[in-house]
Design brief:
Blueprint (H helix, E strand, L loop, with lengths): L10 H4 L11 H11 L5 H14 L30 H4 L16 H6 L2
Length: 113
Amino acid sequence: SLSAKGPEMCLAKVFVSGYSCKDVPFRQILENLLQSCCFPEVAKLADGIVKCAERHGLDTSMFGGRACKSGLPGHALQIFIRRSLVDRLAYAAHPYGPVDEERMPLSSWLNGD
């Protein structure tokens, strides 16, 4: 939710200015993902993905590309999942991804608001 206050940050407060972990090797993670999907020429494909994102005005500086012209790198991706599938497809996490056992199962925590 855009108004929820999560364990790490509040999206409503950091949306415009952007929020990111600066010490994460994003480019390497992208290339590893592409390689795990058996794509050939991973570096070339990653370059193409970064260039495509730049053409659409996204900030790609964390991937070795350019910062966005607006200086406002914030973007949000919201994925809708049926409540009956939440526990199979998602989990509550602490910053950087470890499972947050206190909010598991996630469906119960989400139903608590």
